[in-house]
Amino acid sequence: MARVLTLTLNPALDLALRLGEFRLGEVNRTESTRLDAAGKGINVARVLAGLGHEVTVSGLLGADNETAFVKAFADCGLRDAFIRVPGDTRINAKLSEASGRVTDLNGPGLRIPGHALEALTARVGTLVTGHEAVVISGSLPPNVTPAQLAGLITLIRERGIPVWLDTSGPALTSGLAARPSAIKPNETELAGWAGRPLETSQARLEAALKLNSEGIEDVLVSAGSDSVLWAQRGSALEATPPRVTVLSTVGAGDTLLAGALHGVLSGWPRVRTLRFATALAAESVRHVGVGDPKAEDFESLHTQTLVRNPSTGEMHG
Ligand SMILES: Nc1ncnc2c1ncn2[C@@H]1O[C@H](COP(=O)(O)OP(=O)(O)O)[C@@H](O)[C@H]1O
Ligand SMILES: O=P(O)(O)OC[C@H]1O[C@](O)(COP(=O)(O)O)[C@@H](O)[C@@H]1O
C-alpha cells in the first residue's frame, strides 16, 4: 500500500439535512441532520485510508472548532499535519430531498494570515518526500490566490511526485498551468475551463484529449449518473455507473478520485481501475458520506458498471 498526502486548503464541516421537499422562504422540518468533518481532500483521505493506504492530511484548519476534525482523523487513522489558523472552519449545508435532488450551500471559508500559508508551504516542502502521490482538492479560502495554489503544485512536481488536482474556476485554470499529473473535474467544472457547455460525451472527450495534449496525463471527467470519462495520454475509456437510489451525492466526486488513485497506486489495469472507482462512487450516493467498498452488494455494483472505448464503442468485459 502507498503513502499519500492530501491537501485541503478550505475544509468544511458538512451539515447534511434530509427532508421530503425543501420549501424556500418557509419553516422546513428536517427528517435528520448530521455534522461531519469534511472538505474534498479529507473525504479523499477517508476513502484511501479505508482501502489500506497510509494517509497524511494537511491544509489550513480553523483552530476554534477543530474537535470534529481531530476525532475524525483519529477514527480514520489519518495523520494530522494541518496548519491551524485563528477562527472557525466554515460550515457547508447540504440539503437532500426525497426526490434525490441535492442543494449545496458552501461557505467562503476563513481568511488566512500570510504566515499560515508560508507555514503550510514549508510543511508541504518537508512532508512530501516519501509520498507516492499528493491530492490537492477543493476551493481556496477567500484570500488565497490561484497563483499560490499553482506555486504549491510546482513545489511538489519539482520533487517528481504526482499531483492529483480537483478544483474549479480560476483555481483550476491556474492549477493547470502548473501541470498537475491528474485532474478530476465534473462536467460543469470542465465546461468552465473550456468556456463552453460540454453536454455530450463527444464534447467532453475532445476537451479531455486537449488537456492530455497540453501535458495533463490523466483527465477524469465525471458526469453524475451519466458517465465517467478517463483520458490518459490521448487514449480514452468511458464508464457508465450502475443505477442506484440517490440519497446524497455529496462526496461522490471525492470517492471517484480516491478510487481511481487507489487503482493507479495498486498498479491495476485501467479498465479495472475505472470500473472500481465508478462503482465505489455510485455506492457513495446511496447514503451520506464517502463510498464503502465493504458494502454487501459492492460486487454487484461493480458487475453492473460498464466500461467501453468511447471512440470505437467496444465494450470491455
Ligand atoms: N445518480 C448517480 N447514480 C450513480 N452514480 C452516481 C450518481 N451521481 C454520481 N455518481 C457517481 O459519482 C461520480 C461523481 O459524481 P459527480 O456528481 O459527477 O461528481 P462531483 O461530486 O465532483 O460533482 C460519478 O462519476 C458516478 O460514478
Ligand atoms: O471546497 P468546495 O469546492 O467548496 O467543496 C467542499 C465540499 O465538497 C465536498 O468535499 C464534497 O465534494 P464532492 O461532492 O465533489 O465529492 C464536501 O464535503 C464539501 O462541503
Automatic annotation (TrEMBL):
Family, per entry: Belongs to the carbohydrate kinase PfkB family.
InterPro entries recorded: 1-PFruKinase, Carboh/pur_kinase_PfkB_CS, PfkB_dom, Ribokinase-like, Tagatose/fructose_Pkinase
Residues in Carbohydrate kinase PfkB domain copies: 20-293
A GO molecular function held by the record: 1-phosphofructokinase activity
Species per Swiss-Prot/TrEMBL record: Stigmatella ashevillensis
Coiled coil: none
Enzyme class: transferase
Keywords: ATP-binding, Kinase, Nucleotide-binding, Transferase
Protein name per its UniProtKB record: 1-phosphofructokinase
Highest taxon listed in the record's lineage: Bacteria
Matches recorded under Pfam families: PfkB
Reactions that this protein is recorded to catalyse: beta-D-fructose 1-phosphate + ATP = beta-D-fructose 1,6-bisphosphate + ADP + H(+)
Role summary: Catalyzes the ATP-dependent phosphorylation of fructose-l-phosphate to fructose-l,6-bisphosphate.
